[in-house]
Amino acid sequence: MMRPVTEVACGVLIDEKKRFLLGSRPEGKPCAGFWEFPGGKLEPGETPSEALERELKEELGICLVESIPWFVMEHDYPHAYVRLHFRRCFAWKGVFRSLEHQEFAWFMSPFDLARLKNLPMNRLIAERICLPDLVPVSGDLRLENMQGLNPNRGVIVDTAEQMHEAAVAGALYAVAMPGSEGRLLADQANELPLYVFAKRESLNGWRQKGAHGVIYAL
User: Which of 114, 153, 175, 197 is most enclosed, with most CB atoms within 10 A?
Assistant: First the structure.
């Protein structure tokens, strides 16, 4: 019998030094003491964006300027089956305060997490955070020609089904086949960070639509 799905909004806060924020789960909650990305469950009628804005105000005392859809993943914990809506946050207002008696800290890379008690997907998510936003490509649009990306951990996709299969197989990122970008980004439910082939100066516009970054021709 399939377990009910708990929808959760997760904030990937990235500061000007390109550090990301993690917090420890408080006592009295499942997995207490483990570190996670801040956020929480969606309340009835809430969107992931609204839930994340509310949760970060309750947990950290900050007001998000915006949050940008990034990717969605599911995980089966002993206490719940969750669908995690990860959203990147580059701007906020206010001073960070631990309002729910949690410990918070900034990190630079997946290697920084080795000393922590981590929830299962933390390292993978940290690896995705560290993917470059701008990727030059020389020659044909093939993974081997994309500078700064590991071709063995990516996939070029044309459909959501292809992306799902790649995510299940453990891919780190996906590249949208030219012409499929709008369709893949339409429902903001991609299972992998998605690159689009576009001009480098269009990065911010594509980010707002949910793309991780831009691959541009040299």
Answer: 175
Bridge partners of 7?
83
Query: Burial letters for 70-99: b for 16+ Cβ neighbours within 10 Å, e otherwise?
Result: bbbbeeeeeeeebebbbbbbeebeeeeeee
Residue 22 tokens read as 């993690």
Distance CA 215, CA 197 (A): 5
Beta bridge mates, 11: 87
CA trace torsion 156, 157, 162, 165 (10° rounding): 30
User: Closest by alpha carbon to 204, among 68, 85, 86, 92?
Assistant: 68
- The tens digit of pLDDT for each residue in 94-126 reads 999 988 878 999 999 999 998 888 888 899 999
| Structure token pair of residue 197 | 């082939």
Phi, psi (5° rounding) for residue 17? -90, 5
- Model pTM? 0.93
Dihedral of CA 76/77/80/85: which sign? negative
C-alpha closest to that of 208 among 122, 124, 91? 91
